[in-house]
């Protein structure tokens, strides 16, 4: 039985997806990925990850709406969401908060920060 | 917005202007109507006092004024949305009726000897300044009506087509004719001279008003254009920012994975090069931040996110950020922060200030040099400085360096370093906080960048 913590990465840039996946797997996390918003939504529902790392600029369904949809759903609102995006404007950060994301990290990011945030949010649960 | 839309905007503004004029004329017309009612009422009161009982014609005059005034009132009431031309024409028509009424009055008060011909002049002033500063020629129309009605009256009375009232003339027809000629000429010339004067001033007023209104419309359209450009620029900045950051983040993360040994062992030289690459990616990201924010900071449009911040913690953060470079360049970093300094400021922006100042200090200090960073209280202010013992600056450059895109050319380098934005941004941020920043330096000895901020704990509250 796998005791590993499952993390879902929703990111449309393949190279970015790969890099984060490598990092997380090296830190003993089980990783599932999605390349667009709607795939992200369905994988979140079927796989029930312990945490979601979410990009904003996604095809089909953007990150903000995806986040809000998950947060409004009784079954999934308790999954912590970290928004990881190149959008750095204050308006975007505020919107992220409004949509219910637990954290907002801008790219380029320091992997130590991401890992620290992940561990902090998982510990809170 | 393209040219058509701007032309459309102009047309819209012109329509608004016209509507304002129409409302103005309407308002003044109502004034005229109420004044006429008042005159009629006063007239009836006087009639009641038997003043004019012997002059039944005065009753007819009052009724006549009442009659056309009611017509004017009804017309104004029912025409809900008059055009500018319509309402102007209507007003002229009713002023012409007023001219007729005045002529009638002159007739029953002694025609040639009547003192009431000055009322023509009053009407000319009303038409000139009152309703028709937009249509100054109306002054001459009223003058013309006045003169014509007056002359017709004189002729009719002289030719005894209508009976003479209020005056007895013991003059022979020839003498009478002379008097009439004199009066006619005098009155007509006075009316037109007066009209010309009023026209001149009314035209002046009207021209000024038109010029102002035109300038105003042009300004408003320009404002729209500028808003559009601003929106485009913000859009561009936001998109570019995202487009540039995405590949940077991939590069950084890939390098980071290798450095951290996730993909296998890395030897010392490889480590060194990779760390250097990583710090340069960070450097690119910082330049990006500066570039994209510079216009907003310069125009002081950036909104500050004020909170209680410990400046010493910020300094620690930045020093940690630059550890790689200071170690690599063997620069000693000393802190002169005796106590925690908590003030009301925007931590993100103050971080930028320290990043830029310390980045510069490291850049311009030679291998084995020293940087000192201090934060402290001083009376009602907080003073902070970043000092280095590097190449320094000449006195002539000390204020110039805070200008946008100004870079100093170090003597032993081929070209100046950096984008020239860092200090300009620092200045903008410090000044937006209500503080001041300046530099002290001696060439070859070093440089000290100092800034002060008002010592505030909470919004508005100042510590003494």
Alpha plus pi helix count of chain B:
11
N-C termini distance of chain A: 21 Å
Number of helices of chain A: 5
- List SSEs of chain B in N-to-C order: HHHHHHHEHHEEHEEHEE
CA-based gyration radius of chain A: 13 Å
Order of secondary-structure elements of chain A: EHEHEHEHEH
Low-confidence parts of chain A, pLDDT < 50 over ≥5 residues? none
Shape assignment of chain B: rod-shaped
CATH fold-level topology of chain A: Rossmann fold
Rg of chain B over CA atoms, rounded to whole Å, is: 42 Å
The dominant shape of chain A is globular
Q: Within the largest sheet of chain B, what's the order of strands?
A: 2-4-5-7-6
Oligomer: heterodimer
Outline the low-pLDDT stretches of chain B: none
Terminal Cα span of chain B: 53 Å
Looking at CATH, the homologous superfamily of chain A is Response regulator
In total, how many domains does the architecture of chain B comprise?
2
State the gist of this model.
The complex is a heterodimer of chains A (125) and B (464). With 125 residues, chain A is of the alpha/beta class.
What characteristics describe this protein?
heterodimer; A: 125 residues; alpha/beta; Rossmann fold; five-stranded parallel sheet; 5 strands; 45% helix; globular; B: 464 residues; alpha+beta; Heat Shock Protein 90; 2 domains; five-stranded mixed sheet; two-stranded antiparallel ribbon; 11 helices; 63% helix
């Amino acid at each position: 039985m796998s005791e590993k913590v499952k993390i879902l990465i929703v990111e449309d840039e393949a190279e970015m997806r790969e890099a984060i996946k490598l990092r997380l797997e090296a830190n003993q996390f089980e990783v599932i990925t999605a390349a667009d918003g709607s795939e992200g939504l369905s994988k979140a529902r079927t796989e029930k990850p312990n945490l979601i790392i979410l990009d904003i600029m996604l095809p089909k369904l953007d990150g903000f709406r995806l986040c809000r949809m998950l947060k409004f759903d009784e079954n999934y609102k308790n999954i912590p969401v970290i928004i990881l995006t190149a959008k750095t404007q204050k308006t975007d950060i505020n919107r992220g908060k409004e949509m219910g994301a637990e954290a907002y990290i801008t790219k380029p990011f320091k992997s130590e920060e991401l890992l620290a945030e992940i561990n902090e949010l998982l510990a809170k649960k | 917005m393209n040219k058509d839309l701007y032309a459309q905007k102009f047309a819209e503004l012109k329509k608004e202007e016209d509507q304002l004029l129409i409302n103005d004329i309407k308002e003044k017309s109502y004034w005229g109507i109420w004044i006429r009612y008042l005159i009629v009422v006063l007239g009836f009161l006087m009639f009641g006092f038997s003043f004019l009982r012997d002059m039944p014609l005065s009753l007819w005059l009052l009724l006549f004024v009442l009659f056309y005034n009611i017509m004017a009132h009804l017309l104004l009431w029912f025409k809900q949305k008059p055009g500018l031309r319509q309402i102007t024409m209507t007003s002229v028509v009713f002023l012409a009726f007023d001219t007729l009424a005045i002529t009638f009055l002159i007739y029953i008060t002694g025609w040639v000897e009547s003192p009431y011909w000055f009322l023509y002049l009053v009407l000319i002033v009303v038409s000139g300044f009152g309703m028709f500063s937009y249509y100054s020629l109306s002054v001459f129309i009223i003058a013309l009506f006045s003169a014509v009605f007056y002359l017709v009256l004189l002729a009719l009375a002289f030719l005894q087509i209508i009976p003479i009232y209020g005056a007895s003339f013991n003059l022979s027809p020839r003498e009478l004719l002379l008097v009439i000629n004199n009066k006619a000429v005098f009155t007509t010339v006075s009316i037109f001279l007066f009209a010309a004067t009023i026209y001149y001033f009314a035209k002046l007023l009207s021209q000024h008003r038109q010029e102002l209104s035109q300038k105003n419309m042009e300004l408003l359209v320009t404002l729209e254009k500028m808003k559009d450009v601003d929106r485009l620029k913000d859009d561009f900045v936001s998109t570019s920012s995202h487009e540039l950051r995405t590949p940077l983040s991939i590069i950084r993360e890939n390098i980071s994975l290798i450095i951290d040994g996730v993909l296998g062992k890395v030897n010392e030289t490889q480590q060194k090069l990779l760390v250097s690459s990583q710090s340069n990616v960070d450097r690119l990201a910082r330049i990006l931040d500066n570039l994209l924010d510079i216009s907003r900071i310069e125009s002081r449009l950036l909104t500050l996110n004020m909170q209680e911040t410990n400046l010493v913690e910020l300094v620690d953060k930045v020093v940690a950020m630059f550890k790689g470079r200071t170690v690599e360049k063997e620069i000693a970093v000393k802190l002169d922060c005796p106590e925690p300094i908590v003030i009301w400021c925007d931590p993100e922006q103050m971080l930028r200030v320290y990043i830029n100042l310390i980045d510069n200090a490291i850049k311009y200090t030679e291998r084995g040099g020293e940087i000192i960073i201090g934060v402290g209280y001083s009376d009602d202010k907080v003073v902070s400085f970043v000092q280095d013992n590097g190449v320094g600056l000449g006195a002539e450059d000390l204020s110039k360096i805070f200008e946008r895109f100004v870079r100093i050319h170090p003597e032993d380098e081929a070209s100046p370093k950096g984008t020239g934005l860092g200090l300009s941004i620092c200045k903008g941020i410090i000044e937006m906080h209500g503080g001041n920043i300046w530099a002290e330096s001696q060439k070859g000895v070093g440089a000290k960048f100092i800034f002060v901020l008002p010592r505030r704990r909470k919004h508005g509250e100042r510590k003494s």
